[in-house]
Structure formats: structure tokens, C-alpha cells
Design goal:
The structure is a homotrimer of 389-residue chains.
Chain A: E1 3-8, E2 13-14, E3 18-21, H1 22-25, E4 34-39, E5 49-54, E6 58-63, E7 69-75, E8 78-80, E9 114-119, E10 126-128, E11 131-133, E12 146-151, E13 159-168, E14 174-183, E15 189-198, E16 204-214, E17 224-227, E18 229-234, H2 237-241, E19 259-265, E20 273-279, E21 286-292, E22 298-305, E23 312-319, H3 326-331, E24 336-338, E25 343-353, H4 356-371, E26 376-377
Organism (chains A, B, C): Tautonia plasticadhaerens
InterPro entries (chains A, B, C): DUF4432, Gal_mutarotase_sf_dom, GH-type_carb-bd
Protein name (chains A, B, C): DUF4432 domain-containing protein
């Protein structure tokens, strides 16, 4: 299995540009896959490394410079992602001042399909004793120190991109994230496996949230969120206003104030593997995100159907905890405690559907899971999921 | 009209270096004009793009990386600009921490002839609810996402540099500045036209201030500020101390505490086009800045005649509003309200004079405008122009 | 004496890479010295200039981009430095948010053998009126604007690396640091001479601290700190707990809370030249740091024998003052007052010993100095050295 190291700072290795395809390896060329790496130039994207992982049908732009996040993707001509007001991204972390705007500087770089939040903190800005934490934490704005690719030389010739990002400093967290993206040529699927390793000598707390963001064509008036739900809690009074229709989406609405719903989902078996889906109004297109509630027990749905110039988008956010103030989450014991050397694993699969049958099949899977439990939908923010009124 | 695109991030286009002159286009070479672009290297200027627009007599260094500001210029051997304590600029925005120093980090990069202040905010640091705004806002530290040049192929063969800078983020302002610099080969004039477009879906407020900064040879003991003035208000008690001689300048004085005067000017006709001038003591050199009070109704004169090692400089600052605390300016309704898609235009002309007759002619123009109105000079800070004592 | 300029921003000169050795100059090649400069690429080190000054026995990695600090060194196979949790350094200043983490962002880049603290401030984060100062000040995160090397063409063919770093802004300090590193081919010694020049027009205060950081093989269980001591004051109650064994070091201890001791040392003659030494348990290896108490009157010992994953390290920190809150240090008059144009010089020598005799000889030198004075060891934090309880 050929492995190519693109970045390895421990050995002072970094690759400016790189490209590979099946023909280069003497592998079957029928799927037309390719992996390429280049460094973007100019403006706020100057110096951002971008890896395009294209399996022939599904193309994903991975950003080693932005914590191995996913800028955007494409599946058979459909855009995966959203139209952020940030139009000149991907923005280099050196141009994102996390302490800026009173701790909201993270928003200056927010334009991704997948932005990870964490790892010391993943909620709103907060001051704790002498320390200040900015919105959604730091991991998305830390460049990877190690990046490599692999191409399996036996069918189905799986394509792999791996990276490592450290959130570490003296007197602080020392957490390593090892992430691995995998896809099979010609498939509609991307698998993600993240290992979070406590490299410190003392127990440490992990807060990880996967901020998946989608706009049209998956988000539109009448789109629906589909999942097997145990409970739904509105995070704020504003979210409570819309709790009766929490799983359907409206048209773009200038000035729409975001609504956030905190959920517990129902999964299969002890691992709790569960599908969540955003499907178009007509049910012809959908994005499915699968993960295990044993790894990511807290799910947040972010409805932000603002006008098209402001960011018409919804977020599907599986996580270790809810994006509440850090002190609140700690009080409810939702961070993952890791002993020295211990690892927490999170696995997710992104699947893109463009046939009504496939979408109906996921809906049937959800119905079967839901059959066991009637969802509890609270009509106001309440502990333990959300700070009370 | 040949147009060359140097940066266009939407199409992932960026040009490392570029140069063009009349001979390259088969145009008349008698004026010796040239336009060149390069990327500065090393220290705090690493990665700063610089465009030199040289019309043969007047040379202007434009900084796409610093919000299309003007680093400095030269006119027939005379320096346009000032000696900032920042001697290793132009400083890359990634080296300017706007949240640093308690919100005064902007000063770390301040060494320009023209620094724009705004667009969400252009005053002193302020905390407003959960948001913090640093000194003079962000626009000067946002790299342009689009830069191009044009050379008119018919007389007088005008030279044009254009750029676009977005101040935009989710949940925030989405304002685009389209700026255009124009000059005619061999002339003593630079024209600036900025369009500020609200790309958001809701009404937005614009705060734009043009911080033009000049030192010797235009600033010296006995230099004078010349303009047709309706009113002058000292911004602070310190400024009030010097209000009797607000329009004359002293020699460099170590430890001089800045004095700021807020003015309304008198312009021609309904547009209110008006000249402002800084002229040397003997009246042999001057810089004239023309603009329209209908576009930029608020003028601020910044007197900062500190020692030569600290920054002996004065600022001529036409603006949409005064550089007061944001809350104060909003209360007085001085920000420009822009509907979705609406544009505010600001046009300015910089003219360099080196003949007493030309200077006398501007003085006569000012006198004629002033003849209609006697200036009101307040002797203390007062509303509505300045927060009271 | 050949002098090569690597960076001179005033003349827009910067050198991407460079290497020189004795053979290049026709000098004796028996010591195998070399000086090389390159720019690191990738991750958080992207764009960091590194100069390796290798005298054949002693190798030192100087970081012009990080305020001319020393990343790490090597002496005959022994590492000079420590294992910071920051494993992907040296970190570019654009990736260090000094305003981040509530003023503790400096720690994100802290992995050096020598990190200078200062120059306006070198203590803990503090808000003073409208201004905020982050941990340990800014100088270590300001790139040099001037860098050059010299090789003496007469025996002993001394090798010199020089750099200039300005901490300067409008309305603020305007201090220039001119630093010079010198070493003789084949020697075990590095000399440092820093000149701090007040380029402003008014008196200014200088705060400079040399944060020398060492781990194994010099730091280990049973290592000792050796110096001629007039007084020792624990900085905090926590430090007071260990004051009885302030000069010996324990094994790595996960969760060990740092202990800081503030000292006055005894020097030779009126200049007060004095050796300080960290020696291994068996006395076979040591690092000696010599400086003059007339130049650097305040010495701080930082004991941070945390676990190996957190940063097992000790700091030897000669300074103009103690790393206490800025207001406290000013009240006790410990900053250096510099008139306009005035210079403060600090000279240090780093010497690496790997023979017991050499180490015993330094111990004898210390004993002789100490013979004149019995050290005062206070058992609690007390003024004037430390804020009281």
C-alpha cells in the first residue's frame, strides 16, 4: 500500500504540491480518482494547504492548515457545503483572530462543510478564572503537523488521507487528534475516524463537536431533518418558538435568528450507530451522517435559515457534549475524561444520496429505530441539556 | 483598454510579480509611467503585496494586503507620508493583533500615508454587549480578494488600479469595498473612488474614515491647515487647550499630546465639493485633498506634532462620521445606513502642489467658500460633535 | 572580516537560504564550523527563518523570526533545551495570539532554549488603564528587521550572528534591541551581547528577562542549581513550600505545580560578573550561564519539574527585574530608565561543561564568592522582591 508523506514537521518535511491518480500507480483507471495537494495563494487564503480527495464521483477538499477540516465537496455536480458571507476563504488561521470581536473571531474563518469545534472547549466565548476561551475553541485554526496519503493497492483500492493536529501548550491541554479520511473510488461515501489522544501526564477533558454545514441543494424550503430521536431540547427561548417544527426548514429569510436544538438520538445496539439525514423537500437528494452515540452522545441541530447573502445554512453537529458554556457542560459531566495516554475514538460516515429509494430506505431505518421510543420534545430550555431560563 | 487581473481569489488567481510600462503597450513613453507589483519578503512585511503606481511625476505604493491602503508616495523627490515609529513596515495583517494591547493593536501596523478606518467601526476600542471592537476597525488589515489594473489606450492614457476588500462574517456586517485609484501620466493628481456595497440581506451601517497622514516637508513649524470651515469642535479638553491655533502647526515636540478637532466644512453647491490643504510654512509646497461633504460630511484634523522619533505627523481625515465611541456616533445618527444591495460612494482627489501660485489659488478658492459663512469655533468638547466633558 | 547581510528590511533585502563554511572562505577547516540559514515550511513553522550557528562542537539554532531567540542547541550530542508540549515549533509569531487565552497566548509558541521576555513588560498578564499586556511581553514574537553574519578572518576565526528587533509603535515604546551572538570554532561557549536603545524622544522603561530553559540531560533527579546567592525569596506560597530545597531538583512529577524563586546574586568586583550553573546529579554535565549583576541585577529560578509529557524543565532567568506584575515592579523601581538615545547593555555567556573538573572549578568559584556573604533565604513571599501574601 503506497504511502506518501506530505507533511511531517518532526522531520522538517513539507510538500508544496503533489498529485496522483490511478494511472500513476498502474491501477485500474475506470473510476477516474485522483488525490492532489497544493498551497493556495493570495489574500486571506495565502499559505493554506488544500488536499482534493476525488474518488471519481465524490470530491472533498481537505484543509490541513485548518485543522484537517473539510472546506467543501462536490457529488456528481452538487455542491456539498454552503454560501458563507466569507467568500474569500479558506482563511488562513493567521488571519483569524480567535481573541478578536470579544471572542467571536472564529466566525471570520467560518465557511466550511466540516469545521471541528474543540478540543479544550467547543461552546460560546467564556472567561474562566484568568483564562478566556473563544467561540468553538481552537482546533479548526491549528495547522496539522503531519499529513500523509495512502492508496490501497488491492480492490476496492481505498483512498486514505491522514493528518495529525495537536492542541497543546505548557500548563494546558496536550491533546493530539489523529484523523483519517477514507473513500472508495466511485462511491458516495466518506468515512472519518478521529482518535483523540491525551499526551499529557494527567487526566484531561475532551470536548469535540463536528460542525457539518449544508446549504442548497440539500437545504431548501421544505427540507427535513430525519433522525431517530429520544429527546429534543431548545437551547434558547428563541429556539423554543420553533420547537413545533424543529425538523423542517423554511425558505431563506433575511434576519432569521438562529435556532438550536439539543438532542439525544437512538442508535442500533450497544454501540448506538445511528443515521441522521438532511433531505430535500422532494426527497430526491439527501446527505446522511452516521455515527455512534456511544462515541458522540450529544447531537445538536443548528437552524440558520437566514437570507442568501447572510448564510442560509443548517448544521448537523454530533459531539461529545452540547455547545453550551463550558462551565455548564462540565457541571453536567459531559466532557470526555481521558487518562494519560488514553484515546477517545469518533467515527463518522458521510453518505450522499441522489435516489428517492435510497432516501426512503434511510427513512425506514430511522422509523424502525424510532418505533421503540416516542420522542420527548421539550418546549423550553431546561437542564440538564440546556441552561434554564 | 488593457485590463490585467493580478488577484481574483474567486478564480484562485494570484500573481507573484508583474510590471508594465508604456513601451510594453506601444504607447507614448514620454511620461515614463510604470505599474509594478511585487510581494515583499522578510520580517513583519513577509507576504505583503505592493503595487507601485508611478505616473512619471507622482508615485504611489498601494497595499492590497493592507486593505488597498497607500503605504507612501513620492512627488518629484518629496516624500508623501510620515516617519512612523514602525520602521519595518508595511506590516502584514497576520502580524497585527487587533485585539492586542487591550484593543489598540492596530497601532502596531500604522505607518501609512492612507489608512482607511472602518467599516463596522472606526473609533476608539469599545465593548458593546458581547462584542469588542478594536481601534479604528478592521478594513486596513483585511487583504483584498480582487486586484486588477487598467491602462487606457487613448490619451491621456489614464492608469487605474482597482481592488475589492470584504469585511464580512456570519452574524455580522457583509460590506464590500470596491476601490479604484486613477492617475494621468505626468500629473500631480491621484483620484480615489470607493464604493461600499451592503451585500447583506438586511440594512447595515457603514463607518468609513480616510486617515491621510503627512509629515515633512508638508508638515513643519508654521505649516497651516487650510479649509472652508463651518464649525470646529475640540474632541477633548486637551484639544480645547489649542483650539485658538488649531490650524497652525508647531515644530516637533517630544511628548506632545495629540489634539483632535472635529469639523464641518463648506463645499461648493449641493454636492459640497471642498478642498482641504496642508501647506508648508513658506507656502511653497502643499498637499490638497478634495472630497464632497455630501459623501463624507465629517472632517477630523489630527495634530500629533510629537518628536521626530515618536511620529511627527498630522492627519487629514474626511469621513462618514467622527472617530468617537461607536455608541456615541450611533446615537447621533452619523453612520451611513445602507439597504440591502445599496452602495455608498466616496470620491477623493489628492493633489500635490509645488508652486506658490497653485497654493495661493487654492487659498483663494477656500476664501471664496468661507466668505459666505463665519466659522464657529467652540472652545470645549460639546455634543453633538464630541462627547461633552 | 567578511560580513553577509541576510535581512535588511530598510533596503528591502531578505535571503531565503544561505550556507557558509571555512572552506568557502579559504580558512582552516579543522574545526568543521558552518553557518546556514533557511526558512522552515509547513504547519505552524511556515515562514520561520532559522540560522544554525555550528562551531564544530556547539550548535545553536537562532530564530530571527522569533525575536532572535534560540530555539535549541546541541553540544557534542547533548541536547540544549527541553521537551515542550509544543512539538511542532518553532512557531511563527503569526500563529501565536498574544491576546489569546486571556493574555496567556504566549505559551502557544513557548518551546525555546532562550526566550527573551520584554521589552515593555515581562511579567504576568495585566490590564493597566486601557492597555492590556500579555504574559512575558512581545519581543519573542517580533521578527527581526535586520540580520547579518560575520566571520573573523584572523584566528580564532570568531563567528558572529547579529540581529535587530524593534518593539515600537505610535504612542508606545520605541525600543530597539541589537543582539550579537559570538562563538569561537571548537569552543564550548556562546557569548551574547544585547544593546537596548531607546529610539524615542522621551525617557522610556526597559524590562528584559532571559528565559533560559533546560531539560535533560542537565535537568534530572538530583540536579543542582549552583550560584553565589545573596538572597532567595519564594514568589508564591507554593514556592515557599519548597524553599528548603530550592536548589535541588526532583524527578519528573506529573502535575507538579511550578515553583519560582527570586534571587539576588553576588558577583565579582563592581561589575558583578557571576556564574550560575545547572549541573547534573553526578556532576558530569553542566550548563553555566555568566552575566553581570550590574547589567542584570534580578535572577529568577523557575522550577517546573512536571511530567515528561507536560514539560520537565527549569528556567535560569537573569533579568533587569523580576517577573512580577508590572505595577509591582514599577513601584519598586526595578525597570531600567533610559533617556532618549540611551542604551542598556546586557552580556551573557553560555558555557557547556562535560568534565567533572570543569564543573568543580565553577563550584569553587561560586564558593569563593559565597564565602563573603551568608545567603538570606526567606520562607515566604515578601516585599520588595515578591508581592506579599
Amino acid at each position: 500500500m503506497p504511502q506518501i508523506t506530505l507533511t511531517d514537521l518532526a522531520h522538517d518535511l513539507w510538500t508544496e504540491s503533489f498529485a496522483i491518480s490511478a494511472a500513476d500507480l498502474g491501477l485500474p483507471t475506470d473510476q477516474g480518482w485522483s488525490i492532489s495537494k497544493r498551497t493556495l495563494r493570495g489574500g486571506r487564503r495565502e499559505g493554506v494547504d488544500l488536499i482534493r480527495l476525488h474518488n471519481g464521483q465524490l470530491s472533498i477538499d481537505i484543509l490541513p492548515t485548518r485543522g484537517m477540516g473539510i472546506w467543501r465537496g462536490q457529488f456528481r455536480g452538487d455542491r456539498l457545503g454552503w454560501s458563507s458571507p466569507v467568500v474569500d476563504g479558506p482563511v488562513h488561521p493567521s488571519q483569524v483572530n480567535l481573541a478578536g470581536l470579544g471572542g467571536f473571531g472564529w466566525l471570520d474563518g467560518f465557511d466550511e462543510l466540516l469545521a471541528r469545534c474543540g478540543l479544550e472547549h467547543n461552546g460560546p466565548p467564556i472567561q474562566e478564572g484568568p483564562f478566556a476561551h473563544g467561540l468553538h475553541g481552537r482546533i479548526q485554526n491549528i495547522p496539522a503537523h503531519s499529513v500523509s496519503i495512502q492508496i490501497c493497492d488491492t480492490p476496492p483500492y481505498e483512498l486514505i488521507v491522514e493528518g495529525q493536529v495537536d492542541e497543546a501548550r505548557l500548563f494546558g491541554l496536550r491533546m493530539r487528534m489523529k484523523t483519517r479520511y477514507r473513500t472508495v473510488p466511485g462511491s458516495n461515501r466518506l468515512s472519518i475516524r478521529d482518535e483523540f489522544v491525551n499526551l499529557g501526564d494527567r487526566p484531561a477533558r475532551l470536548a469535540a463537536l463536528y460542525h457539518w454545514n449544508l446549504g442548497p441543494p440539500y437545504l431548501e424550503q421544505g427540507s427535513r431533518f430525519v433522525a431517530a430521536i429520544r429527546s429534543v431540547v431548545p437551547q434558547t427561548p428563541r429556539a423554543a418558538e420553533g420547537v413545533g417544527r424543529f425538523d423542517t426548514f423554511g425558505a431563506p429569510e433575511p434576519g432569521f435568528a438562529e435556532q438550536v436544538y439539543l438532542m439525544e438520538l437512538i442508535g442500533h445496539g450497544t454501540e448506538g450507530s445511528t443515521p441522521t439525514m438532511l433531505r430535500s423537500a422532494s426527497g430526491d437528494k439527501a446527505v446522511v451522517l452516521r455515527f455512534a452515540t456511544s462515541q458522540l452522545p450529544c447531537f445538536t441541530l443548528w437552524k440558520n435559515t437566514m437570507g442568501p447573502g447572510e448564510g442560509y445554512v443548517t448544521g448537523l453537529e454530533p459531539a461529545t457534549n452540547y455547545p453550551n458554556p463550558r462551565t455548564f457542560e462540565r457541571r453536567h459531566g459531559r466532557f470526555v475524561e481521558l487518562a494519560p495516554g488514553e484515546t477517545h475514538v469518533a467515527e463518522l460516515t458521510l453518505e450522499i444520496l441522489d435516489h428517492p429509494q435510497a432516501i426512503a430506505s434511510v427513512e425506514a431505518e430511522v422509523e424502525a429505530l424510532q418505533a421503540r421510543v416516542s420522542p420527548t420534545v421539550l418546549d423550553s430550555p431546561q437542564e440538564p441539556h440546556a441552561p434554564g431560563p
